Amino acid sequence: MTYDVIVVGAGLAGLVATAELATKGKKVLLLDQEPEASLGGQAWWSFGGLFLVDSPEQRRMGIKDSRELAWQDWLGTAGFDRDEEDYWGKKWAEAYVDFATGEKREWLHSLGVRFFPVVGWAERGGYLAEGHGNSVPRFHIVWGTGPGIVKPFESQVRVAVEKGLVTYKPRHQVNELIVEKGCIIGVQGVKLVPSHAIRGEASSREVIGEFAFYSRSVVVTSGGIGANQGLIKKSWPDRLGRPPESMLSGVPAHVDGRMLAITEKAGGRIVNRDRMWHYTEGIKNWNPIWPRHGIRILPGPSSLWLDAKGNRFPAPNFPGFDTLGTLKAIQDTGFDYSWFVLTQKVIEKEFALSGSEQNPDLTEKKLAKGTFPIVTWGP
Questions:
Q1: What's this model's pTM, rounded to 2 decimal places?
Q2: How many domains does the chain have?
Q3: Cis bond leading into 316, ω under 30°?
């Protein structure tokens, strides 16, 4: 069968790309190494926070935002300082800020996506107005968290499968992008044994066959490197200090970054390897699904944050202000951990956990209007 496009990776980006292509009448082959249970990838596990600018939710809360302010914040945070590497990144960033200010919310709303009425203030910065961070709250939580943002695109893809526009093949691991006369003309790899692994669990890598598919266009949407700690440490920038000896993982084992090297071998250009993001407020999951399964704490600003020796971090290393700055401050102590000190009152008022599995009421759309998920105190 001839395909117009092959999409490698069935996470959120792959589902969106496939759905959009199918709406244009294109025939798409969607490949993923994981079983169907993991459709949606790491986005399914997320809290579902989306970046929107000058939204109805912001205006309802009295938050004054604008495209100009958002772009100023983006420039201050991105720190574009690499003329060649940053050229297309800056173009994309400007287009995305325009998208987030304009059609993004309306488009998502038309697909059935709804938002929690309280807008969160992630990554405040704490520096000058033109420095790092969001000047105003922009963290819009999807009603239904990660599964709530995955569902409309998964539904579109499944409809397209029924119409014959999309062919979805799980357990197909791409090992090579086929190059002919300087052009990518297809993919080849191995078929993996069928797996009954539940979402998030590691699946078998036993090979039962091979495949090759051809297309005029190939889109790689294979996710990041969050579960590949060897690759993380290899790419770790000096500006963040030494890499930690031990790290938790907020994503399943299949978020391994293996398609990066495969794409690069075929002539793709990988940029910004060192511009990585690591949350500093994590604890071990009491009921882990994948190796080193971590839970991110969403602490309010009242938490007292101390280093391993009990010294308070200097400003602006407060919860939710400058994640990478605080990461370096932690690493500079020589220890891989820090402490939050809280009172019962602070915990009850502003302490929450991130992720779809940690917020079942929001994920299942059962919260009473005007409430927010917090950690309760007591048995």
A1: 0.93
A2: 2
A3: yes
